[in-house]
Design brief:
Distance between the termini: 51 Å
Radius of gyration: 20 Å
Number of helices: 11
Length: 325
């Protein structure tokens, strides 16, 4: 008989209709070619989706050889097959929960460490695997390559592997990605193009190894159509929309007294679950950070100006109510 492993995780994203969803940290501006992309997907749904040619095109666009995956989540499970069984896995304490879940599924020995890269480097042992999210989820802290260097150098000295999750790097103004021999970088389009349902991401580093365990046709016809339009777009959509997000981010920082390097914030609210329910009554959904081991915090993203205004007002009212009790 099959039994559950006893470890689950919760992700952002609305489960019910009618709420302004700040819980999922996505670009609120869809690409102008979205309708044409879905029409193209419908037209190619009657055949198996082979995307090797598009993978080559994406490598040229990114400037490094990549392996396309069905989002970062598939990449994590491919990594589990290749490198996690029986290994010592080091994970920061307050970060994306899927790292630990995948590590335990594949029988790794998990060690929690500090969220600072230099301090995390002290826990690196020979042939261990280290997960680091940059910018980090949920607090939005981004580290420049020079700040990551102690961790990258230690990983190379110990012949370990650093898995650098850069899911939100497109939202960081002036961001730069580090290089290293024992470095695997995870990227996704679901955040920066606001399309989590299409499940398309890519991995930089060890592309042949990832392809050797990748399931056939993991990216369906919609993902294939997305890649076609993305290559034609050449990241122009990001160049148009990121300044809009950065402007709103600055507005929210001033209004709420929060700080982040990316497109989402964490805010201390006392009881996260209670705050989530209070805001839902106002038609707004934010993320409870209890699964990050931060039960006094909520996370919320940057959306369009009118929506952000409603969130700012609701959070201020909820805070006043909490203080008056």
């Amino acid at each position: 008989m099959l039994e559950p492993i006893g470890f689950s995780t919760y992700h952002g994203g609305a489960r019910e209709e009618g709420l302004i969803d700040f819980s999922a940290s996505l670009n609120p501006y869809p690409p102008e070619w979205l309708d044409r992309m879905f029409e193209r997907a419908k037209g190619i749904s009657g055949r198996y989706p082979y995307y090797e040619r598009l993978e080559e095109g994406l490598s040229g666009l990114v400037g490094e050889e990549v392996a396309v995956t069905a989002g970062i989540t598939e990449a994590l499970y491919l990594l589990g097959t290749l490198a996690l069984r029986g290994r010592r896995v080091v994970i920061p304490r307050h970060t994306y929960g899927e790292y630990e879940r995948v590590a335990r599924i594949f029988g790794a020995r998990v060690l929690k460490g500090p969220n600072e890269p230099a301090k995390l480097a002290e826990l690196v042992e020979r042939e261990s695997v280290i997960f680091f999210c940059n910018p980090n989820n949920p607090n939005g802290r981004y580290y420049m390559p020079r700040e990551l260097k102690p961790l990258i150098d230690t990983v190379e000295d110990k012949n370990a592997l650093l898995v650098l999750d850069e899911a939100f790097i497109d939202f960081v103004k002036g961001a730069k990605s580090p290089k290293g021999e024992n470095l695997l970088k995870l990227r996704t389009f679901t955040k920066s193009y606001g399309l989590p349902g299409i499940r398309v991401g890519y991995v930089i580093g060890f592309p042949e190894a990832l392809r050797s365990v990748r399931m056939p046709w993991g990216v369906g016809s919609t993902g294939l159509a997305f890649l076609e339009f993305l290559l034609e777009d050449g990241f122009e959509h990001l160049r148009k929309t990121m300044p809009l997000i950065w402007r709103e981010k600055e507005r929210m920082e001033k209004a709420l007294g929060v700080k982040s390097d990316t497109n989402f914030f964490t805010m201390q609210v006392g009881d996260a679950r209670e705050t989530v329910e209070t805001l839902k009554k106002r038609g707004i959904l934010v993320r409870d950070c209890t699964s990050f081991d931060l039960p006094e915090y909520v996370r919320f993203s940057v959306r369009k100006p009118e929506e952000n205004g409603k969130l700012i007002e609701a959070l201020k009212e909820a805070e006043m109510e909490r203080k008056s009790m």
